Amino acid sequence: MNASKVELSKCFLSSIDAAKKFVDYNEYQLDPDGEIYQYILQLYAYNYDNVAAKKARFSEDSFLARVLPEKEEDFAAFVDVVTDEMHTLLGEAVSLGAGSGLFLWATVEEQPVIAFFKLNYQTKFTCDMTEDGQVIWKQSGRLLPSHTQKEYDYFYINLYERKVWMSDSKCYIDGEMVNYMAERILQLELKKSEKEMVAVFENAVLDTIKECYKEHEEAPKKVFEYRQEAASEAVEMGEISPVKMEERLFADNERAKEVYREKVEELQIADKPVEVGKKTERKLKKKQKIVLESGIELQVPIECLEDSNLFQYQQDEHGNVLIRIQDVGGVLK
What we know:
Strand content: 25-35%
Radius of gyration: 25 Å
Helix content: 25-40%
Number of helices: 9
Order of helices and strands: EEHEHHEEEEEEEEHHHEHHEHEEEE
Structural class: alpha+beta
Strand order of the largest sheet: 2-1-4-5-8-9-3
Low-confidence stretches: none
Oligomer: single chain
Shape: globular
């Protein structure tokens, strides 16, 4: 997410510590020209479109819908609910450490999206100097992580679309390893992340191709055809549809259609499209990596994969793909 698309308008800070009787929190006045504001903005933008985030939706009669604020002025009440539950969890959960809570109300592309970050305290060595001029190292605790360290847990909630996405942050509660934010704080049932869904979907496609296309160049061509179809659909529609992929990719092979449907059912892939964000779109559009048994890696632009003037493919009886590169000019970099 480009930080320029994020408008931060309200912020609360809290101290999450089991040694205290309750969680302290207060509103923090945002200063757009200050360093703290830039840190908070980078943290929000950096994690906003994380493809590894778990996803969920909530209904009007859910617990989350009841505690969510309808407008920015009511944000403090939601903060109070979450901080209270966080303090209770610290006494019950195993391996849930102390930290600082950060609550944000923001507008992203004209939609209100609130976020929470539990910034886990870091203990690091710092360089200092004694009164007599000796350079020393000493340990400093309760340091906050940078936005790229990922030493934090988070969730985002789109109020209009009733969408939630969050880090898969787990700890032991009552002897069971669970995502504490989903199970206890927001009371949601999580679904696979975008990254997981795309990977599962791709496995179903590639396994079908491997099983149903045995002739020399059939399998390699189908794989590259899939790459191009997936990239095109992601860019045009912002999603990848299992149903459309079957229609486009396996129209020439009835057995492949049957095998694909079985794998989709086996892997519990829903018929509805898999939503993909800009990061996944860029990944699908970029160069395809081909890794050879020797360890050699080739980076090939998607549009070049089916150019017979550049590449020729053959598949042997064991399923191995032979690649022949021809008419290639250029320089080594």
